[in-house]
Amino acid sequence: MTDSPRITPVLAIVSGAGSAGKTTTATTLAALLAQDGQRVLLIDLDPQANATTAVGVDPETVTHTAGTVMLREITLAEAIVSTPIEGLSLVPASDLLDQQRILLGTVTGAEQRLKHALRGVEDLADVVILDCQQGVGELFPVAALVAATAALTTTFPSTKELQGLPRTEGIVTDVADAYNPDLALVAVVPCSVPPVGAGRFYAEAIDALQGAYGGLVTPPVRRSVVASRAYDQRTPLPIGASGEPVTEDYRAVLADLRAKGVLA
Ligand SMILES: Nc1ncnc2c1ncn2[C@@H]1O[C@H](COP(=O)(O)OP(=O)(O)OP(=O)(O)O)[C@@H](O)[C@H]1O
Ligand SMILES: [Mg+2]
């Protein structure tokens, strides 16, 4: 009997709403998994390059991105750079992605090219995390969903953000139908959740989230200035603020994703 082939989980972190906690979640989960000894590949698909910055790589130094790979100018392996965090490698982003998106707009099947580039990724990484820009219908988020084994979304517990979730769910379903039948939205992470003392409004929003998405909703991540400071210091939470309650919240999110079978 032969062993079944290893499948590297590819987790796309997407949301229709901006400033919803995607990058904080992507970089924190990536650093937690790297600390656990996994080979983690973080792919930054946002021209804002916040994930690149957050893990300590200067976007000004970036000469190639996932867009360069999708244009088939270099391979995925050639696009990977190391980060200051042991076990965490990165395909960085910069505003080059803006031009590359326009070039890729003329390429038939561009949305499938990240998936093709990730063939054989099990030799490079045990887990891949894709940090996407706001807006699920854009080329790069769609390419991420085509390439992903699972989709995760993040949301702030407030009306506007919650209203965006059905659209995110709809795009995941559309991509699954068209390209990737195994794809599903596997988790909704409530991010930057204010303390109970902030009033019933937020608690009711979490209740509404649980009513609509049930078991997909992970434990909440509290609002904490420590999360913003981690970005300012270009050091993910588990590295620079390991013992902080907000980092513990993310450990609970990771445990929940493991319990759901999303991550190993
Ligand atoms: N738990 C938290 N507590 C306080 N601030 C937070 C928390 N999580 C994220 N933030 C801050 O909220 C802002 C948005 O977070 P983040 O960049 O992770 O969202 P995003 O969804 O990736 O945004 P974009 O759509 O621009 O890519 C950032 O300034 C970040 O530092
Ligand atoms: Mg972001």
From TrEMBL:
It comes from the Bacteria. Coiled coil: none annotated. Signal peptide: none annotated. Residues 10-184 form the AAA domain. This is Chromosome partitioning protein. It comes from Marihabitans asiaticum. The lineage of its organism: Bacteria, Bacillati, Actinomycetota, Actinomycetes, Micrococcales.
